[in-house]
Specification:
Elements (H helix, E strand, L loop, with lengths): L4 H15 L5 E2 L6 E3 L6 E11 L11 H18 L3 E11 L5 H17 L3 E9 L5 E11 L14 E5 L4 H10 L9 H7 L5 H10 L4 E5 L3 H12 L1 E6 L17 H10 L5 E6 L9 E9 L6 E4 L5 E2 L10
Parallel strand pairs: 4-5, 9-12
Antiparallel strand pairs: 1-2, 2-3, 3-6, 4-6, 7-10, 7-11, 8-10, 9-11, 12-13
Helix pairs in contact: 2-3, 4-5, 4-8
Length: about 325
C-alpha cells in the first residue's frame, strides 16, 4: 500500500463525491455517518469497524470472549462520542478452519456482555469461511435527537480541550502482552487493552449539562485524533505537556522514564477515550482532564505540544496506521 489510511480515505471520499448523489447528512470524515432523513425526530448514526487477526488482535494473547467484548466496545465508543445512543448491531464473521464453534460461541458471549450493558440488540449479520485469518466486521446503529450530534467540525477558537477516559494504558498493556520477558500478564494495563473501559454514563452526564462543540473517539492516539478535530474545524489544537496526566494514566506517576510513558499517552492507540472541546471550564478529576486549548489555525501543524512556559515542543504525531 503506497498511501497511509487517511490519504486513502480522502481519495475515496473525492471519488464518491464525484460519482454518487450527496449524502443526506454527514458521510465520510467523522467517527460515524449521520443520516438525517430517516426520522422526523432523530438523526440516525452508523459506524462500521473491521478487526483482523494479527493486525488488530492475536488469539495467542486474547481470549475469544475478550475479542468479542472489544469488537463491540470499539463501535460503541464511536457512536457515543457523537452523543448518540447505540441501538442495533450487525455482525459479519469470516472464520478459518482452525477456529471451532466453541471459539465463536465464546466470541459471541463477550460481544453480548458488552452489548447487554447498553441495551443494544443484535439484529443480523453474515458468516463465511476464511482461508487463514479470523475477520470481524461490525456495523452499529444509533440515534440522537435531531441536529444534536456532536461532530469533529465544531471546535471554536478559545475552546478548552478535554479528555474523558484512559490514555496510553492500552498501548502499555499491548507492550506487556507482546513482551515475552514480562511474566505478569494480569496487570491493569493488559486488562484495559483486552477489555477497554468507556465512561458511558459520565459522558452523557457531561453532554446533558454543558454545550460540547466538537468531539472524537481516541482510537489511533491522542495527537493523531486531535488532528482530525483540528483539520475538520480549521483550527489549531494545543496540547499541554504539563497536564494532569496521572488522572488518565495510573502508571504515569510510577514511571521512571516519564517520556516513554508520555509516548504511550500521546500516540498509544485503542484508548477509546473521548476528546472534546467546549467553552466551559471543568475541574480535573479522575479520568477527566483538561489537556489543552484551541487556537486560530496557522500554516504550522494543526496539533502542537506546548510546555507550561509557553514553548512549543518539536514533536511529530504518529499514532496508529492501519497500513
Amino acid at each position: 500500500m503506497d498511501k497511509n489510511e487517511f490519504e486513502l480515505i480522502k481519495n475515496i471520499d473525492k471519488l464518491i463525491q464525484r460519482s454518487l448523489p450527496e449524502t443526506n447528512g454527514v458521510g465520510i470524515g467523522d467517527d460515524c455517518a449521520l443520516l438525517n432523513d430517516l426520522s422526523p425526530t432523530d438523526d440516525i448514526l452508523i459506524t462500521k469497524d473491521l478487526l483482523i487477526e494479527d493486525i488488530h488482535f492475536k488469539t495467542s494473547t486474547a481470549s475469544f470472549a475478550d475479542i468479542g467484548y472489544k469488537s463491540a466496545i470499539v463501535n460503541i465508543s464511536d457512536l457515543i462520542s457523537k452523543g448518540a445512543t447505540p441501538t442495533n448491531a450487525f455482525i459479519g464473521l469470516s472464520i478459518p478452519k482452525n477456529i471451532d464453534s466453541n471459539d465463536i460461541m465464546n466470541w459471541y458471549k463477550g460481544f453480548i456482555q458488552a452489548c447487554k450493558k447498553y441495551d443494544i440488540s443484535i439484529s443480523g449479520g453474515d458468516t463465511t469461511s476464511s482461508k487463514k485469518h479470523f475477520f470481524i466486521s461490525i456495523t452499529l446503529l444509533g440515534k440522537v435527537e435531531k441536529n444534536k450530534a456532536i461532530l469533529r467540525s465544531g471546535a471554536l477558537i478559545n475552546d478548552n480541550v478535554y479528555v474523558l477516559g484512559n490514555l496510553g494504558e492500552s498501548s502499555l498493556g499491548l507492550k506487556m502482552l507482546s513482551d515475552k520477558s514480562i511474566t505478569n500478564k494480569i496487570h491493569r494495563s493488559t486488562r484495559i487493552h483486552l477489555r477497554p473501559i468507556i465512561f458511558y454514563e459520565k459522558w452523557f452526564e457531561i453532554i446533558n449539562s454543558i454545550k460540547i462543540n466538537s468531539s472524537v473517539d481516541i482510537s489511533d492516539g491522542l495527537m493523531q485524533d486531535a488532528s482530525h478535530i483540528a483539520q475538520q474545524s480549521n483550527v489549531k489544537i494545543v496540547i499541554n505537556k504539563d497536564a494532569n496526566w496521572q488522572h488518565v494514566n495510573s502508571e504515569y506517576k510510577k514511571a521512571i522514564n516519564k517520556w516513554e510513558m508520555f509516548e504511550h499517552i500521546l500516540n498509544g492507540g485503542e484508548d477509546y477515550a473521548i476528546l472534546f472541546t467546549t467553552k466551559e471550564e471543568i475541574e480535573d478529576s479522575k479520568n477527566l482532564i483538561k489537556v489543552g486549548h484551541v487556537e486560530e489555525y496557522t500554516k504550522n501543524q494543526s496539533v502542537i505540544l506546548r510546555d507550561k512556559s509557553g514553548v512549543d515542543i518539536a514533536y511529530t504525531k504518529s499514532g496508529y496506521n492501519h497500513f
